[in-house]
Amino acid sequence: MRRHLIMALLATAAVMPLTTNANEHNDTDMALAGDKGGIEPTLEADIVSRFIWRGQDYGSVSLQPTVGLTWRGLSLTAWGNVGLTQSDYNEVDLTIGYEHPCGLHLSLTDYWAAEGRLADNHVVEGNIGFDFGPLSLDWYTNFAGDYDRTDTGRQAYSSYVEANVPFRLLTCDWTATIGAVPFRTDFYDSASGFAVVNIGLLVEKEIAVTPRFGIPLFAGAAANPSNKGLYLWCGLTVGI
Fold first, then answer.
1. pLDDT tens for residues 26-40?
2. Fewest CB atoms less than 10 Å from the CB: which of 53, 70, 77, 184?
3. Under a CB-based contact definition with an 8 Å cutoff, are residues 41 and 25 in contact?
4. What is the DSSP letter of 15?
5. Stronger pLDDT, 27 or 93, i.e. the higher one
6. CA–CA separation, 224 vs 150, rounded Å?
């Protein structure tokens, strides 16, 4: 009897630290996962057949990684585009943003064309927008940097306004987009004045691989009436 009691005490002593450690790890994971205001990490990458941005064509097959942190509406994100060939467009974007529960969102983005030196080839853009639920509106303006200049070398303040309408149809998530530049700019395919530069439709669907894992697939089509462009692309997202 005494021997059995000693064995039971030893087994309990061995299990208790494991249980405590497991609880500590669970508490930490819950905090990092955003439980009651914790930090939410983002680590993912898109593989796209073509790099299309605001009605402009920036190259062929690309890898587009995203790394970010979100805390109580504040976000810090690094996004990149890496082309598969040496001639493809490479880019790194750093964004700090804030999203209020009412739908208001603000952001600052530093666009860096990575084929240049670190100190060159930047454009800094400000964004203000509002998500109404069935419709979201955004205004973007460049206010600093090297790429957005007039013929006399002054800041051009190129701007872009976009409306998005998300909807659900045939078990897929869809987004209809229309985007325009409000005045003359060389930043968006040299528009001579107000011009619609992006009419697009994006469809997304997650393909289940296992009961707990799926691969998000997407495909898009966009027309640019300003430069007569028409683009089709597709891709998939991998991440945690």
1. 444 444 444 456 999
2. 53
3. no
4. H
5. 93
6. 23
Q: Are 107 and 98 in contact (CB under 8 A)?
A: yes
Tell me how far apart the alpha carbons of residues 178 and 90 are, in angstroms, rounded to a whole number: 26
CA–CA distance, 232 with 222 (Å, rounded to integer): 7
**Is 158:182 a contact under the CB 8 Å cutoff?**
no
Residue 192 pLDDT > 90, yes or no?
no
Between CA 201 and CA 238 the distance in angstroms is 22
pTM over 0.70: yes
What token pair was written down for 170? 């045939």
| CA–CA gap between residue 161 and residue 170 (Å, rounded) | 29
| E strand or H helix at 14 | helix 2-32
Mean pLDDT of 129-151: 93
Tokens of 155: 């800041």
* Paired tokens of 67: 């790394």
Nearest to 147 by CA among 116, 170, 174, 177: 116
Which tokens in the block code for residue 86? 């040496």
Between 216 and 34, the more confident residue is: 216
Among residues 176, 175, 193, the alpha carbon closest in space to that of 184 is found at 193
Q: How far apart are CA 60 and CA 49, in angstroms?
A: 6
Residue 228 banded pLDDT, cuts 50, 70, 90: very high
